[in-house]
Amino acid sequence: MCLAQRRERSFQLQALKKNKERGGKDPVCITRLLTVMATIVMERIGRVFISLQQIRELPRMLTDAAPSMPGTVRDTEVPYYFRERYVCTGYRPLYQNWRYYFLSLFQRHNETINIWTHLLALLVILVRLRQLAETVDFVGDPHSWPLLILILSSLTYSAFSAAAHLLGGKSELCHYIFFFLDYVGVAQYQYGSAIVHFYYAVDEGLHRHVRGIFMPAATVLSCLSCLGCCYGKYFNHSLPTWVRKVCQVVPSALAYIWDSSPVAKRLMSSSPASNDPAIIYHFGQVAFFLSCSFFFTFPLLERCFPGRCDFVGQSHQIFHVLLSCCTLCQIHASHLDYVGRRKLYSRLHKSGEAALFVGLYVVTLVGCALVVAFMLKKAKQVLDFKAKSK
Questions:
Q1: Which annotated residues bind Zn(2+) (predicted)?
Q2: Whole-number pLDDT of residue 14
Q3: In the chain, where are the structural domains located?
Q4: Between the CA of residue 43 and those of 31, 52, 153, what are the distances in Å?
């Protein structure tokens, strides 16, 4: 290829020199120059098409790079606690090396969409954080700390959820560890929602009644939500499905009702003529959350089309997408409140109150960590007993 390029350049220089000596009007030289230029252009276009073809071949190249990666298996080939209702195929085999599960990020299986939905949401939230950091002083302005906690908690739950769906299929112990972490992410995101709603969206009437108990109650409810989700996962192999769902849904529903009460009161008291740009985004986050709660609780599509939603179309995938939309609406609404309601929340919240709420966020994380440690200890005891009884 390099030799051909040198010949083309040499030919082009000779043609230019001859054309110059003849006054630049030699039609033969002009024709040769046009031919050379056309050849160069066509070769470059060919390189572009080759590059595009290589990009299209990326999945196959990844598969060739890891020829030892086994294919997916049916639900009958994995333990019961790894199976999802009405999802029949696309399960990854257990007890493979870590390399396999990391590379399965680019493999077609029934968790692929669940992983990528939250990875893409993580990227979008990071971009949003960078945009906000250009106008918001997250270090020097204590009033911005609730917004920062919301964004950090959103990044955390997205990352933990992606890790759980990517790595939780290695073994039963890994399944417990990573999904317990996922529930920690959910719980601290609930606290992040509570702090922005109470700090920015609350009105004076509600603030007067709940100012001393709202955030401590949000901490307790977040820890209870983490406990309920971990308990449901711990008994995944023995309890009926509806019991596990109750354990997971009821504490989270109570936390959501409490955490979103300032937003609900504000939405009910607002008039259509109110000039409040954040209202539409608060309405959007509520609508998205209620929709994603439905798809989390009821596997509607898999039940209607069993076996046809094994790769794409699962209700949990829709839940991920709707929850990410809810989070983005929530972040935008909270930023608008941070900018537009500063006079109100500066008067309602005393100096140092933001730092107190940050401290409660740390307490929430510690409480959830203790819950996970306790439930993980019980899970290990069950696994050890099963291993000894074999």
A1: 165, 316, 320
A2: 63
A3: 2-56, 76-389
A4: 18, 14, 51
